[in-house]
Amino acid sequence: MSNANWGCCFSENDNCDEFIVCVKCERKYHYACMIIDRKIITSDLLATWACPQCVHLQPKTANKDNTPVRNVSTVRGNKRIAIGSPQSDPEKVNISMEDIRQVVEGVMDDKMNDLFKRFNENLVGFFAKEIKPMRDELSSIKESLTFINDQYEGIKKENEASKIKVTTLEKENAELKGTVHALAQRVNQIEQHSRQCNLELQNVPESRNENLKTMITKLSEVIGSSLNEKDILNCTRTGKMNREY
User: Per the domain annotation, does 129 fall within a domain?
Assistant: First the structure.
């Protein structure tokens, strides 16, 4: 398709279907170039639409001369510009994708900022309401932990004091054991020394109301030993064999 078939921007895009054909000159015009909303395109409009150049050259029907008449068609696009109006400069009329993108981004930014603001307010209110009981509970737990920590520190100090006391008692106990052992040895030595002058007599008959000192002196006379009662400090039996006496 040649460029002569286009009456607007001379596009080489033959596959574009966003155009309308003038019924007079049969040239194609993009909807965007003519600022025509595609939603208003009907079969009647396609069958009767004429481009601005052809409308401008169309003679008046009331006068039989070649005076051009103005097209009274009021088909309007998004910006409510008449289709029959003279073609404007494409650079001023066309809206680029960058312009649309900037407008959309601006609107989206405003909407998102408002949405984030409301979301933030709702979120802060929600957490403030939900976190308050948790804060109170955490405060109670903190007080309990402080009390338990104080009790633990007190028990720890008592335990340290008890350890010191036990260590001291163990040391004293060890010293006392040594002292008792030494005293036991000394007592044993004293007993052994005190028994150096002892005399043990066995198999001496036992009688009721006996006088042991008299019995010992008589035994000494029998064996020919001179022993008086004054020489005897103490005399006793170790145990009674006959329980009847």
Answer: no
Q: pLDDT for 91-126, tens place per residue?
A: 444 566 777 888 888 888 888 999 989 888 888 888
Of 11, 72, 83, the closest CA to residue 46 belongs to: 83
From 164, 186, 163, 166, select the one nearest 174 (Cα to Cα). Answer: 166
Query: What is the count of structural domains for the chain?
Result: 2
pLDDT digits 0-9 by tens, 58-78: 665 545 555 544 444 444 444
Q: Which residues contact 91 (CB under 8 A, 6 or more apart)?
A: none
Q: Which residues contact 232 (CB under 8 A, 6 or more apart)?
A: 213, 216, 217
Q: Residue 242 in contact with residue 203, Cβ under 8 Å? A: no
Q: Report the SS3 class of residue 81.
A: coil
C-alpha angle 165-166-169 in degrees, rounded to nearest 5: 85
Residue 2 amino acid letter: S
pTM above 0.85, yes or no: no
Name the domain boundary from 36, 71, 95.
Answer: 95
Q: What CA–CA distance (Å, rounded) separates 117 from 55?
A: 54
Q: Is residue 80 one of the residues assigned to a domain?
A: yes
Last residue of a domain, one of 42, 75, 95: 95
- Looking at residue 49, the DSSP 8-state letter turns out to be -
The domain that holds 14 is classified in CATH as 3.30.40
- Yes or no: say if 16 and 30 are a contact pair by the CB < 8 Å rule: yes
Q: Contact at 8 Å (CB) between 54 and 86?
A: no
Domain ranges, residue 223: 199-231
Residue 123 lies in a domain: no
Of the candidates 37, 19, 39, which has an alpha carbon nearest to the alpha carbon of residue 29?
A: 19
